[in-house]
Inverse folding.
C-alpha cells in the first residue's frame, strides 16, 4: 500500500464532510433564529476551544501534517475566520491544497523523520508513520469529532452519516 | 509501509489512552462524590449514546475492524459492562486481542474486499484501505473523541495529552 493512500484521501473526505456539517449548522441557525456567532463560539466546557477553532485545527492537522510528511514548506494560516462562510472557505482552501499532493511525494515518508512542534517551545521528532499514527491523525479526528459534538450538543440535527461524509 | 503498522498499533495506543482517561474519570467521581453511574450514563445530547456505549463501540471498531481486515472470524461482544472496572476490562480484553494479530495477516489487506454491516440490514463491500479510511478509522476516533468530550463536558480534568496517551 502507499502511504499517500492512508493519509491525503482520508483528510479530504473528512474535511468535505465537515463542510456539509457546517452547512447544516448554518441552516439550523436560520431555522431557529440563532445568531451564527453563538454556535461558532460554542464550547463543550469553558476551557475547551470553540467551534471555530476546532474547525481551524482540523484544517491545520490535515494540511500541515501532509506538508510535514511530504517534507515541503508548511503553510502559514492566520486563523481569522469569523463566519460559517469563512470557515467553509478555509476548508475549501485546505482541500485544494491537499489535492496538490502527489502519491510520489509520500514514498518512503513513513520511515523518514518528521520534526514538529508539540506544545510551547517543544519540538518532537518521530518517524513519519508514528508522527501520523500518534499525533497527526488522533489530533485531526479529535477536532473533527469535537466540532461534531459541539453541534450535536447544541441541537443541530446531524448524525454519524454526516460525520462520515456519506449523508 | 505495512498495512498492519497503520492499523493495529494505532488502535492499541488509543485504547490504552482511553483506559487512562477512565481512571481519571473514576477518580473524579470519588473526589467529587459523584455516583459512577451518572458519568457512565452521561450523553452530550439526549439522542446520543452514553459514555459506556461510546467505550464499547471504540473497542468494537478496533477489534472487529482488525478481524475484518485480517479476514478472521469477527469476535462477538455482549456489551454488558456497567462499571468503570468492567469497561477497563473490556478495553484490556480488546488490547490483548489486538496483540494477537501478526503483520503478515495484513499483507495485501488494503486491496482485498471487506464486507461489513453498515446500518440495519445493510452490508457494504469496500477494499480494505477504503474500509479502514472511510469507515473503521473515522468511527473508531469518533467514539474515543466523544467519550473524551462527554467527560470534559462533565468537568473531568483531562486534556489532549490524555487523549493521545502521552500524559
Amino acid at each position: 500500500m502507499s502511504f499517500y493512500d492512508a493519509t491525503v484521501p482520508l483528510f479530504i473526505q473528512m474535511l468535505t464532510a465537515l463542510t456539509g456539517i457546517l452547512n447544516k449548522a448554518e441552516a439550523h441557525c436560520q431555522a431557529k433564529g440563532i445568531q451564527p456567532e453563538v454556535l461558532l463560539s460554542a464550547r463543550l466546557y469553558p476551557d475547551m476551544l470553540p467551534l471555530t477553532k476546532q474547525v481551524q485545527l482540523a484544517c491545520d492537522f490535515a494540511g500541515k501534517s501532509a506538508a510535514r510528511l511530504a517534507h515541503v514548506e508548511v503553510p502559514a494560516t492566520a486563523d481569522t475566520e469569523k463566519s460559517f462562510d469563512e470557515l467553509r472557505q478555509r476548508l475549501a482552501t485546505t482541500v485544494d491544497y491537499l489535492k496538490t499532493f502527489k502519491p510520489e511525494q509520500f514514498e518512503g515518508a513513513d520511515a523518514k523523520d518528521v520534526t514538529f512542534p508539540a506544545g510551547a517551545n517543544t519540538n518532537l521528532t518521530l518517524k513519519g508513520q508514528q508522527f501520523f499514527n500518534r499525533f497527526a491523525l488522533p489530533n485531526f479526528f479529535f477536532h473533527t469529532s469535537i466540532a461534531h459534538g459541539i453541534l450535536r450538543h447544541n441541537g443541530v440535527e446531524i448524525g454519524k452519516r454526516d460525520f462520515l461524509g456519506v449523508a
Q: What stands out?
A: Residues 120 and 135 of chain B are 15 Å apart (CA to CA).
